[in-house]
Amino acid sequence: MDVQQYMQQLGQAARNASRVMARAETMQKNRALIAVAKEIELAKPELIAANQADVDAARANGLDPAMVDRLILSEKAIATMIEGLHQIVTLADPIGEITDMSYRPSGIQVGKMRVPLGVIGIIYEARPNVTIDAAALCLKSGNATILRGGSEAIRANQVLANCIRKGLEAAGLPGDAVQVVETTDRAAVGMLITMPEYVDVIVPRGGKGLIERISREARVPVIKHLDGICHVYIDDEADIAKALPIADNAKTHRYGTCNTMETLLVHRSVADQVLPKLAELYNSKSVELRGCELTLSVLTTIKAATEEDWGTEYLAPILSVKVVSGLDEAIDHINQYGSHHTDSIVTENYTKARRFLREVDSASVMVNASTRFADGFEYGLGAEIGISTDKIHARGPVGLDGLTSQKYVVLGDGHIRQ
Amino acid sequence: MDVQQYMQQLGQAARNASRVMARAETMQKNRALIAVAKEIELAKPELIAANQADVDAARANGLDPAMVDRLILSEKAIATMIEGLHQIVTLADPIGEITDMSYRPSGIQVGKMRVPLGVIGIIYEARPNVTIDAAALCLKSGNATILRGGSEAIRANQVLANCIRKGLEAAGLPGDAVQVVETTDRAAVGMLITMPEYVDVIVPRGGKGLIERISREARVPVIKHLDGICHVYIDDEADIAKALPIADNAKTHRYGTCNTMETLLVHRSVADQVLPKLAELYNSKSVELRGCELTLSVLTTIKAATEEDWGTEYLAPILSVKVVSGLDEAIDHINQYGSHHTDSIVTENYTKARRFLREVDSASVMVNASTRFADGFEYGLGAEIGISTDKIHARGPVGLDGLTSQKYVVLGDGHIRQ
């Protein structure tokens, strides 16, 4: 069987399974999640051996050590996986929820019912924990899923696929509701993103290059996260006692996350006061600073920032710093160079806070809070399939609701249109 | 200037204007709508002359008479256009609305703010009234718009474009917030749908062929309506006094609309009772019936339906009729052959009504009501840019909210992430 046939077969099976999943009861979906957790527990020795074989092969092939790190499934990682499944059991089932039901002048009652999207294709790197995480979220939201993980994790993913199938079947749900692509042929990805008849939406998780390529070539809607060039703007009316911890936390809490600050904007009236203190703080944590001309006049020993810096997501202990003339310049800079992800203003001024919230065109806009809060768990979504930098369908952290749609429900009593 | 340069220039201008529109106050947008109405009033003689020239040219070129009909701007059509603008003034402004604001355990407050999508590209046929309708909805929802109407309406559209620009500028808003593509070069459409840097979403309005082609070629999300193959299912527990008017209204109220019933499903236990009465009713209105084998055993003189009939949107006084064994077969038929638009069950049975609502995978699902109710005005949206048969972003009738997105708003008091 060639890849095309294989993928179409997966697609058809997913479509069929999605119909059953859409009407599955909450209890049944929860039973499946618990059964999957149990199967993983039972398959632990097999899973560890498969992962070891993946890791050995990856090392032999000279895979980047950072990627090998993310490939490794420790005992602790497996325990976290299992705990994650139990957490998703506790989340409210979004499916079937009816809202906004009201009577119209014609006499009909109109409302909206939350429904699954159908079939979700997930494309991700060689991180076997994503397999369970993504499968569980799609399952709970009543969707069928086709998972295509990085080929370096294929052995562990096959073991996990088997656990998921057994768990689904134990709960009386179709085993095909979650399918893991079992070929490492790269053509499989090309097929997956161009089968609108079988796949309703693609969620890519990985590097920017991969996601850009998928967005360009997909014939199916893509819920995507490109990059996180996040800003903190310290206003002249900022409370410095709030500004310093926020600027510290936003940059240094974790360097490799998408909601980490990459550019700090400081009002020129407070630059002299704020920048030396922050420079000391960042210096103590070995954060490299790159400044605009005005910044360099205060912090004389740091490197100059280039035009390229303003549009760079470092994902590293590097921070670009720009002194601005006020709120307008800050907002313009963010809207021009940012990635519409997460931006925060530190100010005590009501009107400026209000303007920042309204005029900054980002998925998350904040006042007096660290950008690191932009996260599905912190926002109370209970779980997160990713963070969308798009505006269509889902924006910002995407939880179970982002994997659903709403249909209109109309109740009448023999009503006809006049 | 070539088409590519021209379209990029429109795109850049729209993007710039969209930033101003996003923060425009409700009052200012309403003033612009009223000013556009006034400009149209003033330009009426010019508009009628331009339209007459369009119509003459279309007739000379042998345009289909039905299309010429839709091209004509009567005095009444112009009055309706002006009234439409005033109606949109009365609609609530969705932009800036903050919902779901709540405190999280960390102490931050998280909610959502409704924001415009940005730049909306609208591609439609030679119907000048759509120019004003679409422009007004995009304007009220704080978006910038690029409008590409059918080339046969180019002269009237240019007059209208001028009225819109004057109205915007009179209200202090950027004239580029609504731009009408002033070239009839077809390459303009190809450009418009492949400029993700300038255009955030495309709304095509027109025939299925046009929309399929745009969806296939677009590199920008498309809010689309393909076809409306709508069903009414008359259950064995239907109240016949409700079933007959609903089946009549759903088919014969208007033949050419997307929410018109195209296939009638009847439970076999009531086929003998219902079908002859309906056949008489449809016969009196010259509706052609095409039946399945079981239907033909009751209505012996009608034409047989072919496999193709079940998947056909007639948009004409033709109806396919199928006798089914029960709810399961009805739901399976609808999900397989329908277009996921609008489907209705007629029944007094609580459990079957509930199952139909949950299991039929359509944008609108109804109980004891005519499919003709699937409409933005009937649903209380106040206006309608179209009806989406997609699941992503907007499903069913799309009003102002469908032209918006939501961003997260986070309010803190110096909060940092632990």
Automatic annotation (TrEMBL), chains A, B:
Pfam families found in the cross-reference section: Aldedh
EC number: 1.2.1.41
Pathway this chain belongs to: Amino-acid biosynthesis; L-proline biosynthesis; L-glutamate 5-semialdehyde from L-glutamate: step 2/2
Subcellular location: Cytoplasm
Keyword Nucleotide-binding: no
Keyword line: Amino-acid biosynthesis, Cytoplasm, NADP, Oxidoreductase, Proline biosynthesis
Domain Aldehyde dehydrogenase, residue spans: 10-284, 310-374
Domain of life: Bacteria
SUPFAM superfamilies, sorted: ALDH-like
A Gene Ontology molecular function term of the record: glutamate-5-semialdehyde dehydrogenase activity
Enzyme class (EC, first level): oxidoreductase
Catalytic reaction annotation: L-glutamate 5-semialdehyde + phosphate + NADP(+) = L-glutamyl 5-phosphate + NADPH + H(+)
InterPro entries: Ald_DH/histidinol_DH, Ald_DH_C, Ald_DH_N, Aldehyde_DH_dom, G-glutamylP_reductase_CS, Glu-5-SA_DH, GPR_dom
Predominant subcellular localization, coarse grouping: cytoplasm
Family note: Belongs to the gamma-glutamyl phosphate reductase family.
HAMAP family, alphabetized: ProA
Protein purpose: Catalyzes the NADPH-dependent reduction of L-glutamate 5-phosphate into L-glutamate 5-semialdehyde and phosphate. The product spontaneously undergoes cyclization to form 1-pyrroline-5-carboxylate.
Name of the protein in its database record: Gamma-glutamyl phosphate reductase
Organism, as annotated: Leeia speluncae
Lineage: Bacteria, Pseudomonadati, Pseudomonadota, Betaproteobacteria, Neisseriales
Gene name of the record: proA
